[in-house]
Structures are given as C-alpha cells and as structure tokens.
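Worked problem 6 (solution included).
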Amino acid sequence: MEGGRGVVDVVLMPGEFFVGDAGYRPSTLLGSCVSVTLWHRLRRIGAMSHFLLSSRGGHSEGLDGRYGDEAIFLMLKELVRRGVAPPECEAKIFGGASMQPGCQVDSMQVGQKNGDIAQRLLRELGIPVVSESLFGLGHRNIIFDIASGYVWARQIKPAIAAEARTRIGA
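Solution. The predicted structure is:
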C-alpha cells in the first residue's frame, strides 16, 4: 500500500458489519450465517456483513446487524454517507450452510432463509450479484480484500471440522 502502510485485518463477529477503503481486509467465519460483500470498483470502498437471521419479522427501534434485511440497509446507509451509490456496487454472497447434516428440519432452514433474503434484497435494490457461494454443508472462512475486490471463500465440510477437533483434543 502507498506510504508504507500495511493492510489492516478486521475480523467480523456475528451481527457485525464493516465499511472501509482499500486499506482494510475484513474476514469472518460462517456456518448458517450469511455474509454479503459490496464493492465499488472505482472508489475501492467495500462493505461486509455477517448476519445470523434473515429478519426480525416485526417493527423495532433502530437497525440491527444480526438480521439480514437490516444488515444490508446498515451497509448501504454507510456507503451512501461515504458518497457511494449502491447500484454502482457489485455484490457477492456467502454462507447459508446446513450445520446439521442429515437433519430434516435443520433449525427451520436458517441458512436457506438467510441466503434467500440476501439474494432477494440485492435483486430488488438493483445491485448486481457477481458471485456467490451459498448453502451446502459446513463452515466457510471468508476474506474480503477491499483493494482488489477479491473474496476468498474456503468451505470446511463437517466431517473435516470434526476430525480436526478430535486431533487437537477439543
């Protein structure tokens, strides 16, 4: 990066979102949660969420990043504050995995609902989705390089995760 500064890594926890410039690289670990990244190619400004549930389903004071519909609007609000028009961004969507393989209910398909709300809202807002890695089984490790717009996603299947926990005695 210019001026000898390094890139600042930011780890998002569930319910958090981040908006920043090319000097940042947010990351997170997802299961049934979903992460949406928004990136403005010319300005090199990006946003990333980590939401747990698709929506609250009721009215409440203030927006909450734990809910997909609200997390997306929180990111958009911050992007607009920085002079970025949301339709000029490109989106990528990750997560929404089933965390209970073989379970018919899987917590009422939380992951599916999370992915569906992200896809629907971005479509309604006119923000193009250029890539997605949704659903399936297991965790995903997500790293978003705002400088380039690249997002790396590594999916870890449940059997591999269980084997790793066994090896380290967890």
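Discussion: The chain has one domain: 8-168.
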